[in-house]
Amino acid sequence: MGAYTNAENVRSLYPQLNELSSLTDGQIDFYVAQAEAEVNGYLATRYALPFSAVPPLVETVSTEYALIKLMDRFFSAEAPTENDWKEVRRKELKELLAALAEGRVVLVTTAGAIITTATGAGIESDTSTHTPTFNHLDPAMQKIDEDRLDDEEDAID
């Protein structure tokens, strides 16, 4: 069982899987784990993981992506054929994940509240309230904003 989805969701998405008595939930969970690992790879750049509650879009993407991975490996092994819908949907899912990672699409809770992005990752600097040190004028005319110097000295104290 995954963090975002499970075998039951994958089976619900594609009921024909239920006709295969040899396909176990454990086998499906293997592909769920692979799908979720990729989803986390995209989302970790923007969101604090793990989520306290799974966003509906993350569950949907994880379920669909797990199904695609399952069908790629489980069914294509016997008859290596390409299904256009799988490739189109895989591309759409990866584009959606990239949009989530870049912030062009946001995640919301089941109540519709926007999930905030992670903060504190990496180095942050904000000198937007000070006059820039460097400009397009003669280098001899460039100087450091006195307020900035005071703020930096105060931060040390």
What does this protein structure show overall?
- The protein is an all-alpha fold and 157 residues long.
- Helix content is 48%, strand content 0%.
- The chain contains 5 helices and no strands.
- It has helices at 7-13, 25-43, 56-75, 84-102, 146-156.
- Helix 1 packs across helix 3 (56-75), helix 2 (25-43) packs across helix 3 (56-75) and helix 3 runs antiparallel to helix 4.
- The longest helix is centred in the middle third of the chain and has 20 residues, at 56-75.
- The N and C termini lie far apart (52 Å).
Quickly describe the structure.
This protein is an all-alpha fold and 157 residues long. Helix content is 48%, strand content 0%.
Write the layout of secondary structure elements.
Elements: H1 7-13, H2 25-43, H3 56-75, H4 84-102, H5 146-156
Helix pairs in contact: 1-3, 2-3, 3-4
List low-confidence stretches.
none
Question: What's the average pLDDT?
Answer: 84
Tell me the number of strands.
0
> Could you say which overall geometry the principal axes of the C-alpha atoms support?
elongated
Helix content: 40-55%
In whole angstroms, the N-to-C terminal distance is: 52 Å
Written as H for each helix and E for each strand, in order along the chain, the element string is HHHHH
Continuous helix count:
5
β content, as a range?
under 5%
